[in-house]
From TrEMBL, chain A:
<keyword id="KW-0636">Prenylation</keyword>
<dbReference type="GO" id="GO:0045335">
    <property type="term" value="C:phagocytic vesicle"/>
</dbReference>
<protein>
    <recommendedName>
        <fullName>Ras-related protein Rab</fullName>
    </recommendedName>
</protein>
<dbReference type="InterPro" id="IPR027417">
    <property type="entry name" value="P-loop_NTPase"/>
</dbReference>
<dbReference type="GO" id="GO:0005802">
    <property type="term" value="C:trans-Golgi network"/>
</dbReference>
<dbReference type="InterPro" id="IPR005225">
    <property type="entry name" value="Small_GTP-bd"/>
</dbReference>
<dbReference type="Pfam" id="PF00071">
    <property type="entry name" value="Ras"/>
</dbReference>
<dbReference type="GO" id="GO:0090385">
    <property type="term" value="P:phagosome-lysosome fusion"/>
</dbReference>
<dbReference type="GO" id="GO:0005770">
    <property type="term" value="C:late endosome"/>
</dbReference>
From TrEMBL, chain B:
<feature type="compositionally biased region" description="Polar residues">
    <location>
        <begin position="392"/>
        <end position="407"/>
    </location>
</feature>
<dbReference type="InterPro" id="IPR000195">
    <property type="entry name" value="Rab-GAP-TBC_dom"/>
</dbReference>
<protein>
    <submittedName>
        <fullName>GTPase activator protein</fullName>
    </submittedName>
</protein>
<feature type="region of interest" description="Disordered">
    <location>
        <begin position="388"/>
        <end position="407"/>
    </location>
</feature>
<dbReference type="InterPro" id="IPR050302">
    <property type="entry name" value="Rab_GAP_TBC_domain"/>
</dbReference>
<dbReference type="InterPro" id="IPR035969">
    <property type="entry name" value="Rab-GAP_TBC_sf"/>
</dbReference>
<dbReference type="GO" id="GO:0005096">
    <property type="term" value="F:GTPase activator activity"/>
</dbReference>
<feature type="domain" description="Rab-GAP TBC">
    <location>
        <begin position="123"/>
        <end position="316"/>
    </location>
</feature>
<dbReference type="Pfam" id="PF00566">
    <property type="entry name" value="RabGAP-TBC"/>
</dbReference>
Length: 210, 439
């Protein structure tokens, strides 16, 4: 199967945000297409995989890292963030405080994850639980994004499958752009992808040149 | 919002959460329909209270039948042992006033220790778990010494708890597939909320940390609220279990265990370790949950584990022997920082940030310090083992090879048991926490 694709990439994407905002639900919806109100709390971190046939030449394996929102796990985040190429910060439209925490999660990410050539980590913001009526998006969000070089934010609903694919596609576009612009093919994530590629073909027919 | 408004809002939020739990499911309870179990779905509950998606077979398969038969036999033996245990305790109470009873007790424990261990390994009969756990954890004694304390903590929590938000969120997600925790604000959900908020006040050094809800949840499957509170306390504070250091800020005990885990891996499965290191797979990524919830929801054993089958125990014993030979059977002793240092039950005024529930802007010095120590220590452990390996390669390459095979054989035999991170467990759920940490 993978022979059909010239390129096989592996992206590690983080999903962060305060506890109970719906990170696990978003990931399950995206990776498995299901929703259940009965998800358990995430202790430490979990991850899920999603394969995207991006175009006729490229297959992208997305590793979604579900990072526990519990504050005490905070100092462990550096372990989980390693090798990430992008992140989604989730907040809960029904709990305004979780929006204020977005700034802290962003600072934590920017502080701990650096991409080669110093480009900032691509980040999107997901305003989750958009299915619950009468929840207004905080008006400051536009300004916040502009100030922090965040190109997009989405109102999502894991329950009703709203905007999740769209948002994740946007992240992937940003990661690809990032890599193209900087010719960052020696970044860690692509190294992993190359290895996968070589493992499968044995002859090291690489998708890109160093 | 100014500070005053924020404080007001937090007080209102806390008030709201507590009120909902106090009301429980009584009339007027506001429960979002999807916070509650779906009655349309047909569930069947196993004998531990866990519900399964598929109906359980109406007739026991021979394997299960035999297992239950053996358990019935075990109950007889256990009852006898419990009786003698009880008598001994009574004797201790009677003689407590005028003579040193410690010798007599030791005698009983000496005689029965091995038997007790062996029987615990084989599995405490489910119907006797409550009794046995309470004995192992000396709940009666601890509770007696702290009369009124639990109620005091409940009241304090009601007024000042800063962990209520996180605990509320976790109670809503803990053991929802269990019959007692299934309904929102059910009696056991109320108890779980109470135990955790009260304990966060009682042990202010730890407060509340995720993982504790799993622990308290299992205890509540077998105990009432106050007993579960003290059982949780014994598990955290007694040096025998010392889970305090697992949950407190900086996780010192977790770090010590991870280090030890790394050491074993480096020694016995160096290639695997190298491979994991190469891909940045730190042990914490996969093992955090083992330690934090004592394998609750991690391993499912009840399906295949035969009560009269000793393969698991034998394999574990064999592996322990190998580890002993390599002097890796035990992690280094606990450091002082892992043990409780603050007095229990002392009220500490929460800070503005704690009340409002803002995430702290940066890591505390304690966290940073622990983080650094851990990194350094782990690096050192790795180096020392590598040197060790190089030195022993010439002289003992054979024994290392054998040891490796042994460790592999554990995974082989354990792979016969279904490992399923999603499904809840009964046998291992209950047996692991008290029974394994003790042994």
């Amino acid at each position: 199967m993978s022979d059909l694709f010239k390129k096989e990439l592996l992206f590690k994407i983080l999903v962060v945000g305060d506890f109970g905002v719906g990170k696990t639900s978003i990931i399950k919806r995206y990776a498995e297409g299901t929703f259940s109100p009965k998800y358990k709390m995430t202790i430490g971190a979990d991850f899920a995989l999603k394969q995207l046939d991006w175009d006729s030449e490229t297959r992208i394996n997305i590793q979604l890292w579900d990072i526990a929102g519990h504050e005490r796990f905070g100092y462990l985040t550096s372990v989980y963030y390693r090798y990430a190429v992008a992140a989604a910060i989730v907040f809960d439209l029904t709990r305004p405080d979780t929006f204020f925490a977005v700034a802290k999660w962003l600072a934590d990410l920017r502080d701990k994850v650096s991409l080669p050539v110093g480009r900032p980590l691509p980040v999107i913001i997901l305003a989750n639980k958009g299915d619950v009526a009468a929840n207004k998006v905080p008006p400051q969000i536009e300004e916040f994004c502009k100030k922090n070089h965040i190109t997009s934010w989405y109102v999502t609903s894991a329950k009703e499958n709203r905007n999740i694919d769209e948002a994740m596609n946007r992240v992937v576009v940003e990661v690809l752009e990032n890599q193209r612009n900087n010719n960052l093919y020696n970044s860690d994530s692509v190294m992993l992808a190359e290895e996968m590629h070589t493992d499968k073909h044995n002859n090291g027919q690489l998708c890109c040149s160093r | 919002m100014n500070e005053e408004d924020l404080l007001k809002r937090s007080a209102e939020e806390r008030e709201k959460i507590f009120k909902r739990y106090e009301l429980g499911r009584a009339e007027g309870a506001e429960i979002d329909p999807w916070e509650d179990p779906d009655f349309q779905i047909y569930h069947v509950t196993d004998r531990y209270g866990f519900m399964h998606d598929k109906p359980l077979p109406s007739k026991l398969d021979p394997h299960e039948a035999k297992k239950q038969q053996i358990e019935l036999e075990r109950i007889k033996k256990w009852l006898k042992m419990l009786k003698s245990w009880d008598d001994n305790e009574k004797l201790k109470d009677k003689t407590h006033k005028h003579l040193k009873s410690s010798e007599k007790i030791n005698e009983w424990e000496m005689v029965h220790k091995e038997k007790l261990h062996r029987r615990i390994y084989k599995g405490i009969p489910n119907s006797l778990r409550t009794q046995v756990w309470c004995k192992l954890l000396s709940i009666g004694k601890v509770k007696g010494e702290n009369k009124g304390e639990y109620n005091k903590m409940l009241k304090l929590a009601r007024k000042y708890s800063t962990d209520a938000r996180q605990i509320d969120s976790d109670v809503n997600r803990q053991f929802r597939e269990h019959i007692s925790f299934r309904e929102r604000y059910s009696t056991k959900q109320q108890s779980l909320f109470n135990v955790l908020t009260a304990y966060a006040m009682y042990n202010s050094e730890v407060g509340y940390c995720q993982g504790m809800s799993g622990l308290a949840g299992v205890l509540l499957m077998y105990m009432d609220e106050e007993d579960a509170f003290w059982a949780l306390h014994v598990l955290l504070s007694d040096v025998k279990y010392a889970m305090h250091g697992l949950y407190k800020e900086g996780f010192p005990k977790l770090n010590r265990f991870l280090e030890h885990h790394d050491r074993i891996l480096t020694k016995f499965m160096p290639r695997l370790k190298k491979h994991l290191d190469k891909h940045g797979v730190d042990a914490i990524l996969y093992s955090l949950k083992w330690y934090f919830v004592c394998f609750v929801e991690r391993v499912k054993l009840y399906k295949d584990f035969m009560y009269d089958e000793d393969t698991v125990i034998q394999t574990l014993e064999r592996s322990m022997d190998e580890l002993k030979k390599a002097k890796l059977d035990l992690p280094p002793p606990a450091t002082k920082e892992e043990l409780p240092s603050r007095q229990f039950g002392i009220f500490i005024e929460p800070t503005f940030e704690q009340i409002v529930g803002h995430r702290m802007e940066s890591f505390t010095n304690k966290e940073k310090e622990t983080n650094e120590i851990v990194m350094l220590r782990r690096e050192a452990a790795r180096e020392s083992i590598e040197i060790d390996n190089r030195e022993s390669q010439v002289s003992a390459s054979d024994s290392v090879g054998n040891a490796g095979t042994d460790v592999d054989s554990i995974s082989l035999s354990s792979s016969r048991y279904t490992v399923d991170s999603e499904t809840s467990i009964c046998e291992s759920t209950s047996s692991s926490i008290i029974e394994c940490t003790r042994l």
